[in-house]
Amino acid sequence: MTKDKIEKLISQLTLQEKVDMIHGNGFFATKGVERLGIPPFRTSDGPRGVRKDFENDAWKDIGLSYDAVSYLPCNTALAATWNRELAYSMGKLLGKEARGRGKDMILAPGINIMRSPLCGRSFEYMGEDPHLVSEMAVPLVQGIEENDVAACVKHFAVNNQETRRFDVDVEVSERALREIYLPGFEAAVRRGRTKGVMGAYNKLRGTHCCHHAHLLNDILRGEWGFEGITVSDWGGVHDTREALMNGLDMEMSGTSDFDAYYMADPLVRMIESGEVDGKTAVARIDEKVRHILQVMNRLHMLDGERSAGSYNDYEDKAALRQAARESVVLLKNDRGILPLDPKKVKKLLVVGENANRAHAPGGGSAEIKALYEITPLMGIHMLLGGNTSVVYKPGYFNDDPGNICANTDGSERGKTAEDKIRHQQEMNEKYLQEALAAAADADAVIFVGGLTHDYDSEGQDRADMKLPYGQDRLITELLKIRPDTVVALVAGSPVDMRAWLDDAASLVFSWYAGMEGGIALAEVLFGKFNPSGRLPETFPFTEADCPAVVLGEFPGQDKVSYGEDIFVGYRYYDTYDVAPAFPFGYGLSYTDFVMTGIRAEVIEDTVLSKGVKVSFDISNIGGQAGAAVAQIYVADKYPRVRKAAKELKAFEKIYLEAGETREVTIMLEREAFTYYDEASHSFVADAGSYMLLLAKNAEEIVDVTEIEFTV
Ligand code: BGC
Predict the structure, then answer these.
(1) Is the Cβ atom of 47 under 6 angstroms away from ligand 1?
(2) pTM above 0.90, yes or no
(3) Is position 244 within any domain?
(4) How many whole angstroms separate alpha carbon 380 and alpha carbon 520?
(5) 233 catalytically annotated
(6) Which of 54, 164, 233 to mutate to test the pocket of ligand 1 (most atoms within 8 A of CB)?
(7) Domain that residue 688 falls in
(8) How far apart are CA 351 and CA 364, in angstroms?
(9) Beta bridge partners of 556
(10) With bands split at pLDDT 50, 70 and 90, how would you rate the model's confidence at 605?
(11) Is the pLDDT of residue 416 over 90?
């Protein structure tokens, strides 16, 4: 459909019809205009797969038999793969399933920066580094949109906590905003060409982000050239005039009085009463409708030649399993306990309630009605087959729903909170003793614990990083009698491991890794897959090390000041010499890689006029094939402004056979050397000396070269 035709459609619409198109007429859809062939616009959560269907005007599960879908690895898991191709394949799958379920926009991906390890929604996001987030979000968005479905990157912007998320007012410097919190969104818009952006609930400098002129008009549309639809977060609109004027296209909410939405009847009344200039208002409304029609047009919603999509395709299992495999991070393997040899393990003890728990149904709007979910316990059984006897002991007590084999001892539970705590403690003790008793004569012991969506969840932040349900004591006691216990954690964010970290020889971190997550973990534990995941965020020892917490600004009060400025994640730990438990980018393998010979050449004719070609050699000197993640950090030798000690500016995941050596070349474009200059409102690169650090992670630099950059 041509531009003229869209303009013609707009001219044929009545004011009421236009207004109907810019606000929800159901929890997840707007009204169409049947007489002109404009369909309703249907959205759906979310980042881990297409959410089940609700009634149009009630938060009531319709209970369909056909809305179970693929459950994808959460975004943190995906980011931990550091594999752009997997991001693309997961995007393609998500878009195809969204289309297959008849949706027009999938409310994903979530790409807010992990400012604090305590944020309840960290698992929905891609970690702490703007470069990694950008590199993973772009292919993910592109993959989604190949299916005639719009992506919707969220939550724009600075939605970095859940506590008081509807109203918290964020104060952040323009530099930190531009360098840390916005690059992922900018990349999704400029390079990913996302057709949707969701405003955040919170305020930025006093104004709610869903109708924030600086964010939506100046930056998003003005600077980045966004041509898609801006959608409010559900209930994120607070003012009709601001929503009209400040760049919001579509108001969505979770209440069923659809006509009462700010951009519904109140908007019409405002125009009719002359409270706003009618001409200006209609022009603004036309603009919103134009954005919506343009997207509808690009999605082929107006011409009938649209891809149909599909879901639960048999052949997608391989990609889902590969993404889950590559997300697993091996954090410790001191005595080479891992991988376990399936042939030598005749009797295996699996301890830990997370071994037996399905996580898909939890977390808030990222919940998934999964077609299936392979738990770690099932994955271990699937992998070992019939020659090993697997004994399972829960080890700790968690009777929250979600445990697919719920403990039945709940009858003993008392009614008061105190009784519940006492009951929890009694059960923990009982389960602990049962696990310890079973540990003595097993050939191997695997503990699978971590968090659940009672902790990693929308709408709340964690109070601390502690493992719940008495797990510290259980792990400590297990390690006392079985120092070879393999510790595996399933969680969406870092936990405090200090109680037992030194005693655990082997440690594996697996996220909410989707429907194939349990078998992927088992494959790593038993050596069928060589782990290649890397942390997309620093794991501090405790939340007390996190700069936002140190400053008393997480979760803060009604107004939160991001006093740590650009020093988020490793930028802080590195620059201020605070040792983390595990650094950003960290992860081990069952093989060994050597990276050497970094060399750099300034190239004059790259797209951005000047860039740097970086090359190095990498060898797999171990005994098996595997993938390494080479990371290039840039450090300004004599910075003119305060800068982090170094910043990630490029990475490459490289798969090598045993004994293989390869030369790798990566381009660094000019932006790798820029910082945001508040005086000139632009990114600038200073001439001078820059160190290029070839690294295995933010702490382990293996080679360095220096370049002179003349601007
Ligand atoms: C969440 C969004 C979600 C929306 C619709 C909101 O509460 O913040 O991420 O897409 O609900 O379910």
Answers:
(1) no
(2) yes
(3) yes
(4) 9
(5) yes
(6) 233
(7) 593-709
(8) 27
(9) none
(10) low
(11) no
The reply to whether ligand 1 has any atom less than 6 angstroms from the CB of 46 is yes
Whether 707 has a pLDDT exceeding 90, the answer reads: yes
pLDDT of residue 709: 85
| Ligand 1 binding pocket mutation candidate from 103, 107, 125, 367 (most atoms within 8 A of CB) | 107
Label residue 344 by pLDDT band (50, 70, 90).
Answer: very high
**In ligand 1, which atom is closest to the CA atom of 159?**
8
Q: Assess whether pLDDT exceeds 60 at residue 266.
A: yes
Number of structural domains in the chain: 3
Within a domain: residue 424?
yes
Structural tokens at position 619? 């060898």
Domain boundary among 248, 268, 303: 248
Contacts of residue 223, Cβ cutoff 8 Å, sequence gap at least 6:
none
What number of other Cβ atoms are within 10 A of residue 596's Cβ?
12
**CATH number assigned to the domain comprising residue 446:** 3.40.50.1700
Q: What is each CA distance from 515 to 49, 189, 209, 365, 521, in whole angstroms?
A: 10, 30, 34, 17, 12
Q: Which of 148, 169, 233, 636 is catalytic?
A: 233
Asked if the model's pLDDT at residue 102 lies above 80, the reply is yes
Q: State the CATH number of the domain containing residue 673.
A: 2.60.40.10
- The percent of residues in the chain predicted with pLDDT above 70, rounded, is 97
102: left (phi over 0), alpha (psi -120 to 50) or beta: left
User: Strand 661-669 and strand 611-620: pairing?
Assistant: antiparallel
233 lines ligand 1 (CB under 6 A): yes
Q: Are residues 522 and 641 in the same domain?
A: no
609 in the same domain as 514: no
Find out whether the beta carbon of 45 lies less than 6 Å from any atom of ligand 1.
yes
> Quick one: three-class SS letters along 502-536?
CCCCEEEEECCCCCCHHHHHHHHHCCCCCCCCCCC
Residue 405 has pLDDT above 90, yes or no: no
Cα–ligand 1 centroid distance for 151 (angstroms)? 14
- Does 598 share its domain with 525? no
Ligand 1 centroid to Cα of residue 383, in Å, is: 37
State which of 194, 223, 248 marks the end of a domain. 248
CB distance 700 to 638 below 8 Å: no
The span from the CA of 488 to the CA of 508, in Å, is 5
Residue 607's pLDDT band (boundaries 50, 70, 90)? low
pLDDT at 375 over 70: yes
Domain-located, residue 221: yes
Q: Give the length of the chain.
A: 711
Q: Whose CA is nearest to atom 3 of ligand 1?
A: 365
285-325 tens-digit pLDDT: 999 999 999 999 999 999 978 999 999 999 999 999 999 99
Q: What is the mean pLDDT of residues 545-568?
A: 97
- Is residue 292 situated within a structural domain? no
Atom of ligand 1 nearest to the CA of 45: 10
